[in-house]
């Protein structure tokens, strides 16, 4: 199996790298960022993405990656290197992702990863923010007569991905409902879809955005539906290695810039013309006021480049998630000013 | 101590020096990497330790031979995965050996059709990558199986469906006594066989050992049923409706399709190599041996059993040991089709949930090493037993 072998090689390599690359990383609190220096030297941002999740990170036939997770990496590249295309993508399975990051194989992990306490605190990672608020749901066949999670009965079989929070949530959920169930956990999402599609399991559970995206891969998407209930909180966001505070800030504020830009109505087409706006917040965003970039060791146009080359969060969402029919409704991923929960600290 | 012995000109010392240097170099490389890993992990805020094995695993596993649910520890989850790996390996080795021997002998058959079928089997199955065969048996065969409500019915006691093969569950009373009787039967068979060998070697008398052994194996357990209050009842799987179109079976035991597909793929694949070993082994026994055996009046079965096989086994066993080892290691491909073996459960889910890559991968590697070495030791023992005993 290609996948499994790759996993082993990667883990092996990762361990070797961890072992061999000496005292990398740079001390916390120092102004100098080893990761930033290395990125500038290499000329590209090393970004870990999924192995193909439409809307989040997905490669087309010619190998071009797109999606809202990909846009986070593009934003970092625009800010740091001046060109959003200077990103090297590494597709990772759920299992490989953290090892790849802690070992230095990648510098940003933008792979629909749920922010949890143990991941943040225990394994040498730092979550920098949330670029998609998700929740776990269930997909069933339309003709099954199951219309809500309350229709689940003892003996139901549920397919999901291994190495994800969904495996844990699923157990919590079925235990709380006192339902005995058969958990079938695959390593790759494609196999989960195939097994569910074949009828091996009665329901398929993962993040709702994932369900919506994977439904498009079914042999007959119209035969399936997602149940209305959401059984968990899944804040998905980019992750960096612990110990490089400057790099962490760069990634965090690259994402924040995209969201703040939407809030102030700055987008890829009008950004440069807003240099002489009346609003100081907008002026700061497009680099016409203040010296915000200096805090990270970047020039003052870093945020302007993000908005011009990648766009604001709303543009990114519309292009990758809404227009592709995955989740046309933004739900919680709407700005706080419009009834959602996207709220970022001010860039000043 | 004689000083001359420590001299560089002493051959023993001279031979030892490069060996000692190699060991020293190896140890220092390991120490260097280990300490470097420690420093790096320290820098990145990753702690090292095996304490996590006692933490609650909080994920469930489809199929387990021991009692397990998410409230058990990671250590217990490791054990579940290990047992599942051993289970599929044992099943795989068992069927691979049977199929391998049959196919190997068939290839030498005088019957053109049988020989050709066996040849094609070998050529097809050994030349397709194992992972594809696993996917084939899982996804292609899976789709061919019916949903539970139309399950293939075996006399209303067993059902084959896409969700698994449901078989009756054995409900024992006084199972221990039954088990003891079987052990007792095997011990007596062993003694009867060695007695029969002695009789044959000393007096040339042939005892009907096969019939006696079979009778013991059936009679002794039967007595426990009649006399010692052992009883066996069955719990049959029953179709259960979960929703208007969703069905499953309740009761009985479910053999999950992942296990069936994996065991099938592993044994079909490995059997091809064993078949070739068997063929090579039989061809390796010179024709003169068979002719000599025939000339002293042994019949065809006796020739195969007493003359050809003992010699052929010496050729067959060593490469077959390799195949057993390969099969065990190949069972790690289970993760692709969600069979909860040690790689999926421990090096997969547990690794993900704890993030302890170095600890978990080392434990897993050590486990495979131990498994492989155990098989090697057993097969070497068997090989020695079968080897020519020079007198």
Question: Would you give an account of this structure?
Answer:
The complex is a heterodimer of chains A (348) and B (391). Chain A has 348 residues and is α/β, with parallel strands linked by helices. Chain A has 2 domains: 229 residues, D-Maltodextrin-Binding Protein, domain 2, CATH 3.40.190; 97 residues, D-Maltodextrin-Binding Protein, domain 2 (3-Layer(aba) Sandwich). Chain A is built from 12 helices and 14 strands. In chain A, the strands form 5 sheets. Chain A has a 5-stranded mixed β-sheet with strand order 10-9-11-8-12, sandwiched between helices. Chain A has a 3-stranded parallel β-sheet with strand order 4-1-5. A two-stranded antiparallel ribbon of chain A has the order 2-3. In chain A, strand 2 and strand 3 form a beta hairpin. In chain A, helix 3 runs antiparallel to helix 11. The termini of chain A are far apart. Chain B has 391 residues and is an alpha+beta fold. In chain B, 65% of the residues lie in helices and 9% in strands. Chain B is built from 11 helices and 8 strands. At the A-B interface, helix 1, helix 4, helix 5, strand 9 and helix 6 of A face helix 1, helix 4, strand 6, strand 7 and helix 10 of B.
Oligomer: heterodimer
- Helix count of chain A? 12
Helix-and-strand structural type of chain B: alpha+beta
Let me know the CATH homologous superfamily of the largest domain in chain B.
Answer: MetI-like
- Which segments of chain B are poorly predicted (pLDDT under 50) over 5 or more consecutive residues? none
| Name of the CATH first level of the largest domain in chain A | Alpha Beta
CATH topology of the largest domain in chain B: MetI-like fold
Helix/strand structural class of chain A: alpha/beta
Pick out the low-confidence regions of chain A.
18-30
State the separation between the terminal residues of chain B, measured CA to CA: 40 Å
Q: How is the main sheet of chain A built? A: 5 strands, mixed
- The CATH first-level class of the largest domain in chain B comes to Mainly Alpha
Count of helix runs of chain B: 11
Specify the overall morphology of chain B.
Answer: globular
Shape of chain A: globular
- Can you tell me the CATH topology of the largest domain in chain A? D-Maltodextrin-Binding Protein, domain 2
Q: Mean pLDDT across all residues of chain A, rounded? A: 87
Radius of gyration of chain A: 21 Å
């Amino acid at each position: 199996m290609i996948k499994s072998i790759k996993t082993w090689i990667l883990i092996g390599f990762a361990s070797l790298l961890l072992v061999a690359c000496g005292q990398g990383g740079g001390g916390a609190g120092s102004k100098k960022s080893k990761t930033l220096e290395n990125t500038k030297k290499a000329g590209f941002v090393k970004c870990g993405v999924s192995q193909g999740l439409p809307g989040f990170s997905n490669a087309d036939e010619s190998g071009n990656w797109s999606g809202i997770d990909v846009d986070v990496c593009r934003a970092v590249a625009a800010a740091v290197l001046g060109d959003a295309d200077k990103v090297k993508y590494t597709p990772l399975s759920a299992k490989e992702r953290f090892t790849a990051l802690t070992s230095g194989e990648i510098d940003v992990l933008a792979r629909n990863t749920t922010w949890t306490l143990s991941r943040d605190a225990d394994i040498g990672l730092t979550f920098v923010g949330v670029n998609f608020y998700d929740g776990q749901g269930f997909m069933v066949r339309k003709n099954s007569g199951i219309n809500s999670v309350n229709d689940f009965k003892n003996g139901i079989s549920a397919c999901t991905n291994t190495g994800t929070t969904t495996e844990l949530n699923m157990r919590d959920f079925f235990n709380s409902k006192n339902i005995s169930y058969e958990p079938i956990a695959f390593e790759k999402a494609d196999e989960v879809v195939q097994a569910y599609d074949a009828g091996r399991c009665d329901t398929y559970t993962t993040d709702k955005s994932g369900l919506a995206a994977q439904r498009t891969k079914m042999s007959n998407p119209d035969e399936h539906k997602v149940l209305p209930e959401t059984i968990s909180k899944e804040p998905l966001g980019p992750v960096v290695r612990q110990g490089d505070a400057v790099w962490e800030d760069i990634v965090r504020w690259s994402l924040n810039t995209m969201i703040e830009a939407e809030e102030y109505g700055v987008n890829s087409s009008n950004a440069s013309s807003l240099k002489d706006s009346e609003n100081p917040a907008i002026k700061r965003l497009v680099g016409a006021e203040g010296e915000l970039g200096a805090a990270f060791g970047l020039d003052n146009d870093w945020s302007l480049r993000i908005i011009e080359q990648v766009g604001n969060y709303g543009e990114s969402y519309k292009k990758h998630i809404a227009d592709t029919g995955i989740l046309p409704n933004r739900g919680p991923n709407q700005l706080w000013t419009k009834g959602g929960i996207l709220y970022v600290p001010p860039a000043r | 101590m004689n000083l001359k012995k420590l001299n560089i000109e002493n051959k023993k010392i001279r031979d030892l020096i490069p060996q000692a240097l190699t060991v020293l170099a190896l140890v220092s490389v390991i120490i260097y990497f280990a300490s470097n890993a420690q420093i790096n992990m320290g820098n990145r805020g990753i702690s090292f330790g095996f304490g996590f094995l006692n933490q609650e695993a909080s994920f469930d596993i489809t199929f387990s031979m021991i009692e397990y649910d998410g409230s058990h520890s990671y250590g217990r989850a490791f054990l579940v995965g290990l047992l599942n790996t051993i289970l599929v390996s044992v099943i795989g080795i068992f069927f691979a050996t049977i199929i391998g021997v049959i196919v190997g002998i068939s290839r030498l058959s005088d019957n053109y059709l049988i020989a050709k079928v066996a040849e094609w089997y070998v050529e097809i199955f050994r030349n397709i990558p194992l992972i594809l065969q696993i996917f084939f048996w899982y996804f292609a065969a899976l789709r061919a199986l019916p949903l539970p409500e139309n399950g293939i019915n075996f006399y209303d006691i067993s059902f084959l469906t896409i969700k698994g093969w449901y078989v009756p569950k054995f409900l024992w009373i006084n199972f221990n006594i039954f088990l003891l009787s079987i052990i007792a039967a095997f011990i007596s068979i062993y003694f009867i066989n060695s007695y029969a060998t002695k009789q044959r070697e000393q007096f040339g008398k042939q005892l009907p050992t096969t019939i006696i052994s079979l009778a013991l194996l059936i009679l002794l357990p039967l007595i426990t049923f009649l006399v010692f209050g052992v009883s066996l009842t069955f719990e049959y799987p029953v179709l259960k409706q979960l929703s208007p179109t969703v069905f499953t079976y309740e009761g009985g035991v479910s053999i999950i399709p992942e296990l069936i597909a994996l065991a099938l793929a592993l044994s079909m694949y490995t059997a091809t190599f064993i078949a070739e070993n068997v063929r090579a082994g039989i061809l390796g026994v010179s024709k003169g041996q068979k002719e000599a055996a025939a000339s002293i009046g042994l019949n065809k079965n006796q020739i195969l059993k007493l003359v050809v096989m003992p010699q052929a086994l010496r050729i067959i066993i060593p490469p077959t040991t390799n195949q057993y080892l390969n099969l065990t290691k190949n069972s790690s491909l289970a993760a692709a089709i969600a069979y909860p073996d040690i790689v999926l459960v421990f090096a997969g889910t547990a690794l993900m949930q704890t993030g302890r890559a170095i600890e978990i991968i080392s434990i897993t590697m050590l486990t495979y090493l131990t498994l492989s070495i155990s098989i090697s030791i057993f097969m070497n023992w068997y090989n020695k037993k079968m080897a020519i005993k020079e007198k």
